[in-house]
Amino acid sequence: MLPSACMNLVDGVQAGAGTAEEELYRVVCQATTARLSRCGAPRADAEDSAHDTFLIVLGAIQSGGLREPGRLMGFIKVVLHRQAAGHITSMMRARQRSVSLDHVSLRHRGPDPEHEVIDHELLGMVHRALAGMRPRSREVIVRSYLQEQTNARVRSEMGMTEVQHRNLKHCALSMLRQRVQRAARVAA
Fold it and tell me: What pTM was estimated for this model as a whole?
């Protein structure tokens, strides 16, 4: 899009012309789709990103935050880049916060082979139940009960208040119990 066309489009949006906003939406959708298709992102993600980008760009234009209207396309690309960087950062944080169940074990009740088999089956049920839970619920259970971290440490590292921690821990433990009991009934 030529700089003169960008300036006309920005002027139209600032004037409140509905057709200018529709054109801006079309331009943002094209830019977003082109950018995300190169990354192999699903179409639904592209549509969501296009809408988010449109709202950011529209807000910047309406508030006068776009200093050089002729560089609208560059501004859109910067917004897309920042959104992608933010998404990557949030995914990295989520990955860092996710807890692994690979090293989780139960204390054995005795050297008896029968108890070892029961413990192994119970551990399998707990693993499957934990794997099916929401990441935050799973994290609070693993940290509190399997890694035996203090409540203060769990709250601090998960960024929760005491009440939030207590509620999440209660709900997660209740969910875990239900899932394990359901698995035990199916296995029986």
Answer: 0.49
Give the pLDDT of residue 49.
79
What confidence score (pLDDT) does residue 108 get? 53
- Specify whether 87 is located in the same domain as 143: no
My answer on whether 71 and 155 are in the same domain is no
Asked whether residue 146 is domain-assigned, the answer is: yes
Q: What is the pLDDT of residues 26-60, one digit of tens each?
A: 998 888 877 776 666 666 666 777 888 889 998 99
User: What pLDDT digit, counting tens, does each position of 61-104 carry?
Assistant: 988 888 888 888 899 889 888 887 777 777 666 655 555 555 55
Q: Cα(87)–Cα(35) distance, rounded to whole angstroms?
A: 14
> Do 80 and 132 fall into the same domain?
no
Please answer whether residues 77 and 31 qualify as being in contact, where contact means their C-beta atoms are separated by less than 8 angstroms: yes
Residue 168 CA: distances (Å) to CA of 62, 139, 142, 144: 41, 10, 13, 11
The Cα 150–Cα 171 span in angstroms is: 18
Provide the domain count of the chain. Answer: 2
CB-count exposure of residue 8 (10 Å: 0-12, 13-18, 19+): middle
In terms of Cβ atoms closer than 10 Å to its own Cβ (0-12, 13-18, 19+), residue 123 is middle
Same domain, 10 and 93: yes
Q: How far apart are CA 47 and CA 50, in angstroms?
A: 5
Rounded CA separation 6/71 (Å): 7
